[in-house]
Amino acid sequence: MSSVLSDIKKDYMVSLLKNGKREDGRGLNDMRDLKIDIGIVNKAEGSCYVQIGDTKVIAGVKCETGTPFPDTPNQGVFTTNAELIPMASPDFEAGPPREDSIELARVVDRGIRESGAIDFEKLVIKEGELVRVLFVDIHIMDYNGNLFDAAGIAAIAALYNAKIPVLDEEGNKTEEQIPLPMRKIPVPCTYVKIADSLLYDPSFEEESVMDSRITVTTEDKGNIAAMQKGDVGSFKKEEILEIVRRSKARGDEIRSILNEKFSDMR
């Protein structure tokens, strides 16, 4: 978007925000329609499709065996990858992972890891020698803003959906399958700041003119598991506190939806 068009667009949005309105008719703290479909990829150990408005994301989980990291011999290995495919947005280009995809993967990974969502010690087969290695792959199918929340929700739901084979002491697969040792449900909530207004679940248009962005990931007890600020603008202390308060409440709402989905799987 050219700077002139961007300035015109931003001025229009700011005029709406002064009256508590957004371009798509939502309130400032409203989320677009959320759709969650679990277990949609047969070849993955676990999977989930999430749609927030017109943003569409698929997360898949694969599980292999390997050696643990030297500094954590008593824990399994966990890695997250995000792929921004060109068909999802004209802004995405083919080739090596770009900065946006690396940041997206790190935010999702940190929220899951720091919340204690997975009991990594239960992924150990032989301490210091053989452990489970979990891969979460996030594929962006359509981008219309707020990839962080869509990807984070899809990733945690795919992990809860995953079933892995029971292994013998040598790491050989048996016929029996078990769920992953999951303990918590981290939920990311993303806000952007435009002028003096805080907007939850930004659309692509809102992200294109935002002054700053922040994602707060909370876990089941309302504790903050991770926080990531993006773009060059700043937030006041009271704005961050308000965003944290809202994120805890919204996180609980989304966790309730996920818990219903998980109970249907059991």
Give the key terms.
6-stranded mixed β-sheet, alpha+beta, 266 residues, elongated, Ribosomal Protein S5, domain 2, 4-stranded antiparallel β-sheet
Secondary-structure blueprint:
Elements: H1 3-17, E1 34-38, E2 46-52, E3 55-66, E4 77-84, H2 99-115, E5 124-126, E6 130-142, H3 147-161, E7 163-167, E8 173-179, E9 187-194, E10 197-200, H4 204-209, E11 212-218, E12 224-230, H5 237-265
Parallel strand pairs: 4-6
Antiparallel strand pairs: 1-2, 2-3, 3-6, 5-6, 7-8, 9-10, 9-11, 11-12
Helix pairs in contact: 2-3
Secondary-structure-based class equals: alpha+beta
Termini distance? 47 Å
CATH classification class = Alpha Beta
Rounded Rg: 19 Å
What's the CATH superfamily, by name?
Answer: GHMP Kinase, N-terminal domain
Overall mean pLDDT stands at: 91
Short description:
The strands form 3 sheets. Strands 1, 2, 3, 4, 5 and 6 form a 6-stranded mixed sheet that branches. A 4-stranded antiparallel sheet has the order 10-9-11-12. The protein has a two-stranded antiparallel sheet with strand order 7-8.
Mind explaining what this structure looks like?
The protein is elongated and about 65 Å long. The protein is α+β, with helices and mostly antiparallel strands. Strands 1, 2, 3, 4, 5 and 6 form a six-stranded mixed sheet that branches. It has one domain (3-265): Ribosomal Protein S5, domain 2 (2-Layer Sandwich). The model has no long low-confidence stretch (mean pLDDT 91). It contains five helices and twelve strands.
